[in-house]
Structure prediction request, 198 residues.
Amino acid sequence: MSFYPASFERLTDCLRRLPGVGAKSAQRMAFWFLSLSDAEAEDFAAAIVEAKHSLRRCSVCQNLTDGETCAICASLKRDKSKICVVSDPRDVIALERSREYDGVYHVLHGVISPLRHIGPDDLTVKELLARMDGSVEEVVMATNPDAEGEATAMYLSRLIKPLGVRVTRIAYGVPVGANLEFADDATLFRAMEGRREI
Prediction:
C-alpha cells in the first residue's frame, strides 16, 4: 500500500527512469519539483518539451544541434581534415573541455555490441564513410577503452585505412592524480604502451 497520492507515485516512477536514479533519489527529486512555484515547474516542463522537439542530429557530424549543422561543423576555425569519432554526444562535450582538439567530430550514437544486438547498421557508420571525400587526413578513434569501444574502433579502422586515411587512437592509461599501486594491469599496460618522450 502506497502512502503517497497516485500523481506523486507517477512522478516518482518517471524520475526513476533517469539513468542512475534509484527510488530514494526519485522521491527527493519529486519533493523538490513540488516545492517549485507553478511558473518554475511550467518553465522546467517547457524546457524538456522544447529540447525534445527542437534538437536533432547535425547533418554533417550527427552531434546534437537545433539547426541544420552544429556550431563545430559550421566554424571556420576548425580543422576539417581531422575527424574525432566518439560514441555519444556527451563525449564531444568532454573532449571540448580539454581545449586541445581543433578538428571536427563524428558521433556514432552507440558502439557495436552483439550482446545488446547493436551492429554497425545501427550506428552512423555510413555517414562517417560518406565524409571520406579526400579532404580528411586523419580519423581519431575516441571510443571508450572497453571491449565494445575497442571492437568498434577496430571495425572502423579496417573500413577507413584502405581509403588512404590515417587512423589513430586516443592514448589512455593512468589518470592524473592516481596512485600506480591501485591501477589494474590493463591500465598500466596501456600507460606503458602509450608513453612519449618528455
In short: The longest strand covers residues 79-86. Residues 6-54 form a domain with the Helicase, Ruva Protein; domain 3 fold (CATH 1.10.8.420).
